[in-house]
Amino acid sequence: MKTVFAKSVPGRTGVLPPKADKTARDMLPQNLLRARRPALPELSELDVVRHYSRLSRLNYGVDANFYPLGSCTMKYNPKFIEAAVNYRGFTDTHPLLAQVDGGEALTQGNLEAIWLTEQLLQEVTGMRAFTMQPMAGAQGELTGILLIAAYHRAKGNKKSKIICPDAAHGTNPATAALAGYEVVNIVSKDGMVDPEALAAVLDDSVAGLMMTCPNTLGLFEQHLPEIVRLLRSVDALLYYDGANFNACMGRLRVGDVGFDVVHLNLHKTMGTPHGGGGPGSGPVGVSERLIPFLPGPRVVKKADGRFGLNHDLPQSIGRVAPFYGNFGVYLKALAYILRCGAEGLSRATDYAVLNANYLLARLRGHLDIPYDRICMHEFVASASKLGEYDVHALDLAKALLDKGYHAPTIYFPLIVKECLMFEPTETESKEMLDAFCDDLIAICERARTDPAGVKAAPVTLPVRRLDETAAARNMILTEVE
Amino acid sequence: MPFIPHTPEDTGAMLKAVGVRHLDELFAAIPDDMRPKSFALPEGLSEYDAAARMHELAHRNAGHVLSFMGAGAYDHIVPAAVDALTARGEFYTAYTPYQPEASQGTLQGIFEYQTAVCRLLDMDAANASVYDGGSAVFEAAMMCVRAAKKRRLVVDECLNPLYRAMLHTLAANVDVVIVTVPHAGGASDMDTLAAAIGGDCAAVIVQNPGFFGVVQDFAPLADKARAAGAKSVMLVNPVLQSVLKTPGESGFDVAVADGQSVGMALSFGGPYLGMMACAKDMVRQMPGRIAGRTKDLDGKTGYVLTLQAREQHIRRAKATSNICSNQALCAMRSVIHLSLLGPEGLIRTAELSMQRARESAEALTKLPGVSMLNDAPYGNEFAVTLPKPARQAVAALLKEKIAPGLPVCRWYKGLENVLLVACTEKTRPAHIRRMAQALSSAL
Amino acid sequence: MSVKPDLLYSPSHEWARIEGNEAVLGITHFAQDQLGDITFIDLPAVGDTLAPGKEMGSVESVKAASDIYSPVAGEVVAVNEALENAPELMNQSPFDKGWMVRVRLSAQPSGLLDAKGYEEAVANEAH
Question: Which of A186, A234, A441, C115 has an alpha carbon 20 to 30 Å from A382's alpha carbon atom?
Fold first, then answer.
């Protein structure tokens, strides 16, 4: 499809505001002005509407397609949350209005919404306080590690290392490095963090351990109490990566079991949509000892029941967002939590875990299951058996696209060869899971009889496999004028 | 129960297939003593009641406030088609385009967004966005530290103080030194900035128009940086960029912006959009996702995420950044917004906003004791000095639901009487009269 | 051909061709094969000092990135500028046209494998 720029017709206009009496040249000296107009598209409103409507049809999305994408929790995004957050007051309030004298009174609803979201997330996780500033999981991670660093600095601890298990999300080591730490990897044993491996690298220089639980193999970390004990012995803190929190609601409160800092991905667990890669929301919860270091300003409920902002936070790490994070995103999570309540959230977790185990039961025997046991909300399989036909995880993924499903996460975690990671979520029905398994099993069969056919996939989508090497070697990143 | 489709029969059949009798058995791996100590959330609400609860919260705000607040977040018109198109489930409920064959809509959209950003800023390459203007400043600074292999950042005090605060927080554990060059009467102090470049300076970071609204020519500063082996970063306003000299024309290495003003509601601070663009030789230092054009097996044009080897899921501890989710849908909003307005619409937006700012300045400086902070050229925002503390004046006007601007004293000591006033194309002459009149009685 | 007889090798899959007091360095056929289609090579600058086992650059393919470690000690006197626009040379001709840098040696190379030793190391890694 042509780009919106290629469709441009000189002189055509779309949505125009009124024309000013003065031009920029009347108002500013020539040396401060650009030489020529920016070459943006010149199109009618219908041209633009049609272009992007057609473009949208080239996409898969949860509304139309099943997304069993491990560690990404692509659950259905309920439609009511859109209506519930598009009220004026939420949408048209300037963020700094709350920060001027007399402005708090005009923004009580928004401040209460932030406060209430924090309170609810505290109860869900068992953490003692939350900040809503981080705008995605990775920024939540960075905030969390900065909090850990601030804690050690305040105590005079000399710490230089963060430990990451080998099954960790790539963001964990990337974050630790960005926060100035040396990253120490430890090897998993039987799919879990191995306390012996941890003890072997643990010393006074360790600031903390970043952990995903259940981990990226979909397994609950059995040695958690021992890990907590080991870390405490050197005053190292335990970080919880919330990517897999959909397995935990009502079943595990991370604050109750010794985690010091947690980020949640509200765009995973709390039903807010991914938007093709954001905006997300990655609030961070902390244990008691990290509260003084939280970013500011913080929303407080005053003695008279009114809400305000506290800027007086002498030990705070500062700001990780200009204002209060992705307000418009976490409002949707708030609406979702209010709708679900305790029972609804627990059931979401229970059925997410049931769906994953059902998928696992149905696929057993057709794909290798390297850690074959009751899983949590996701599990990993391996396509290595199909290697003799030269069919790989990537090929299965592409063949699934042809059947109308988004592919599972592939080649992650790195510790499983030819890895396929399935997370069906609770919002999918048994019929959908059955249809998916039938199709995937048929693809595995076809891999043995007609491997070339599988390797040719996809053939029904807008494009076939794309040349990523050429894209990287001859970078074409914009439409040339 | 909402959003869970299982009938009791489904559940029974599925438990049987798994080989357990009860859902609880699926959680046997969690030891009993690790079960939650509490899970006391309010009882779930019906769709209607949940929406009503949200409406009640929204309603607890003041309702319409006549606002002249800017400082990086501006209340511009967003055409209705932006909401309509980005609400399409195909965009809205899609994942990150890691499976390009099933994500050509998002990928081409990002490619078009990158193109729009590059054309607006006159830069060679853009990424698919970062979180906001502040994170864009931080990531730009880190790009320069890596590229220049130096560690001192020279930051103009006219750079948005909220973004500067973020830079200090986010770079707290990175081996860099941040030197802030004080403003000179609300404008960038070019001589002092130039003098601070050199030696171990990795980058000079400026904003145009500056926080106080002042428009300056930064080209000589970029030249000076290049000659000294340092990089240069400019934060811009995307609306005004339709008329102002571009970062590219000024010779900057990296250009960043908060894209809120092109397609996003104020929304109490987010979601906004971190725009990032750079010169060709910096592309590999750029963080986050980048879409590129290529061909499929049949030679058909298509789009993929490219240069992924820089990213966290491959490079892990050595990635250019930890970012994964960005503000993709906001980027989509902004390219749709820019396409609907076109060059003419964006220029009109900028010019009308600037004209209204001049009308406001004229009205305010007629008031006794009110004067412009400086006589420098400005865009759609300007600073005035009041005869009393700006905090008090604003607090008085807020009682009438008028926000005449932002007192800057929280971030600039010594400027207790200074008020920062912003206008957009939504500002009407009657608004200006009302605000000036109210202010006149409060002074 | 996977190994050249007249070169020295590191266990991390770099090769060195010693020419008097200089050495030419690159990555092996095995290494380029593991990486797949190479899309970018980050080279050190002329004048940089290299130390054995220390990072001297990196190589990227579409789905992987790998650091390259210097097998020798010395100062970079030339880099293969052709790689900038034609990274595929490293795939097509890893021992020849895909060379990375030329180094003036500051110490005699030590601890490196000969062709036979490297072949065995690769065979062990593959199993």
Answer: A186
